[in-house]
Amino acid sequence: MLSKREKMAMRLSVSNQKGGAGKTTTALNVAGALNELGSEVLLIDFDPQGHATEGLGFEDLYDDPEQDSLFEVLPDLDRMDDLEDLIVEHQEMDCVPSHVRMINAEDELSNVMRREERLDMLLDNVDDEYDFIIVDCPPNLGVLTDNAIVATGHVLIPAQAKSTSIRAIELLFQQLRSMEQAFGDIHEVGLVANEVGVDGEADEMMEWFKDVFDDKENCEVFEIRKRVALQRAWNNGVSIFEHEEDCDMEDVYLDIAYHLEEQIDG
């Protein structure tokens, strides 16, 4: 069973390099579910496109030319204590917003020392303030995603229940095993199948997901059906738990949150 260091947050990356996998929806609603259970949560929008930033209602910060961001902090070893200055408060969780300048972050990190460990250094300074730190990764396998995975050591994988997801997941597994050789153990804690339809392909993919992930220790497969309420919650800057509409998918996100808490308690 996974362990949690005393007085330190469990860190989790939400990662899949394939676009349209439901990555940000997963990150926001899992964070909302953990908050619903009483946990203190920090969500880091590590995607230069800033979808989680927009989904929490901070789109003005994304475009603000005066806004300090991870783009300035990550490459500068003298600023490894500055993460707290980037945190903004949301009604459900704290957030480190993305910024339009993050589009150039991979280039800025390309030649710096310990480039894959910069986020890990930053998180060391806020670990004792949260129960969970969730990183919404970019939709690619690059230096930013490597930073997130090294910093967290735990990966939750969102995917669509379509055959096109197979190759992306296989490539992600290859990347995770490669990174383990250099940085230590990395645990897949689950797969979230998003917008699962009622058709043969979806049924076959759910079987494939379960065959692949059930063999992994402490790893579960969760099924999210398409619900308009999830999009409306995102449009209103909140998770489904703060949205005014009832939605049966709340129970699934709570199951994911309970699963994550079990990884700590065990």
From TrEMBL:
Gene3D superfamilies: P-loop containing nucleotide triphosphate hydrolases (3.40.50.300). Residues 12-181 form the AAA domain. InterPro entries: AAA_dom (IPR025669), DNA_Partitioning_ATPase (IPR050678), P-loop_NTPase (IPR027417). Pfam families: AAA_31. PANTHER family: COBYRINIC ACID AC-DIAMIDE SYNTHASE, P-LOOP CONTAINING NUCLEOSIDE TRIPHOSPHATE HYDROLASE. This is Cobyrinic acid ac-diamide synthase. The lineage of its organism: Archaea, Methanobacteriati, Methanobacteriota, Stenosarchaea group, Halobacteria.
